[in-house]
Amino acid sequence: MSLAGKTAIITGSNSGIGLGVARELAKAGADVVLNSFTDRDEDHTLAAEIGKETGTNARYIKADMSKGDECRALIEQAGACDILVNNAGIQHVSPIDQFPTDKWDAIIAINMNSAFHTTAAAMPMMRAAGWGRIVNIASAHGLTASPFKAAYVAAKHGVVGMTKTVALETAQEPITCNAICPGYVLTPLVEAQIPNTMKEYNMSREDVVKNVLLERQPSKEFATVEQLGGTTIFLCSDAAAQITGTTISVDGGWTAL
Ligand code: NAD
């Protein structure tokens, strides 16, 4: 599968799943646009390295996905958007009655609203190009819930809902919109939850991973960023041209429980 000649924008891609997906798309030949809210030398170096490794044009564009105008500016600045991967996301864990309002607002803005703004801005470009693929990185939490993650679960269910609507609006065009729903993937977002959980449950790291994090993941293995990249590439392939408005779980059996 060659994605040569396609431009892919991956939000929140200087780390974790976004970075992994960007690498796999570049390996498949796409010119990639990496993004986050920082503007450090290392962000630009990361993109340059991917470009060098894959022989593609890889760029980094700073844009804060918590701000609608910056989401839209990212797409405009990229100048083309054949493949849009809405991936930027954050997490906060708290009981509902103690959930800080600023955390709620930030999660809804970054994890859900950003996908609205980028999709709206990318749609005219996809229509002009006569081809487009929108891949929303939702979560197993877009299909099911866990306690203490009200904002995250609400945002991810929202993304899955928006995915279906965008798919219906583009159903008769060569544009598809789908959501990938990963279970646990060992990225900085998940790594950050381990020390507190070790303290909270007085458990070793190994026990936290197996019995807390992967408790609901029947495979007892993390999904990998490469697997999510591969799933994204499949959704960009001709074989997936009639797959739209749906979710693909990459969760080791979590949602089969
Ligand atoms: P991560 O923390 O490694 O990556 C998050 C990315 O989002 C980073 O590049 C970060 O810089 C970026 N980001 C955060 N705030 C931003 C902002 N305001 N503007 C622009 N970029 C911003 O986490 P990850 O695990 O790779 O998560 C990526 C996505 O995958 C998220 O949407 C997350 O909800 C989803 N997800 C992760 C898992 C998992 O187990 N790791 C499971 C299911 C879904």
Index terms:
NAD(P)-bd_dom_sf; Rossmann fold; 257 residues; Sc_DH/Rdtase_CS; globular; 3-hydroxybutyrate dehydrogenase activity
Short description:
By secondary structure, the chain is α/β, with parallel strands linked by helices. Helices cover 46% and strands 14% of the residues. The chain contains nine helices and seven strands; from the N terminus they run βαβαβαβαβαβααααβ.
Helix/strand layout:
Layout: E1 7-10, H1 16-27, E2 31-36, H2 41-54, E3 59-62, H3 68-78, E4 83-86, H4 101-129, E5 132-137, H5 150-169, E6 175-182, H6 188-191, H7 194-201, H8 205-212, H9 225-236, E7 247-250
Helix pairs in contact: 1-9, 3-4, 4-5, 7-8
The chain binds nicotinamide-adenine-dinucleotide.
Nicotinamide-adenine-dinucleotide binds next to helix 1, helix 4 and helix 6.
Which small molecules are bound? nicotinamide-adenine-dinucleotide
Strand order of the largest sheet: 3-2-1-4-5-6-7
CATH third-level topology of the largest domain: Rossmann fold
Q: Helical region count?
A: 9
Radius of gyration, in Å, reads 18 Å
Query: What is the CATH top level name of the largest domain?
Result: Alpha Beta
**Span between N and C termini?**
33 Å
Helix content: 40-55%
Q: What structural class results from the helix and strand content?
A: alpha/beta
Shape: globular
- Average of pLDDT: 97
Low-confidence stretches: none
Count of spatially separate domains: 2
CATH architecture of the largest domain: 3-Layer(aba) Sandwich
User: Biggest β-sheet, characterized?
Assistant: 7 strands, parallel
SSE order: EHEHEHEHEHEHHHHE
Q: How many E-type strands?
A: 7
Look at the structure and name the CATH superfamily of the largest domain.
NAD(P)-binding Rossmann-like Domain
Strand content: 5-15%
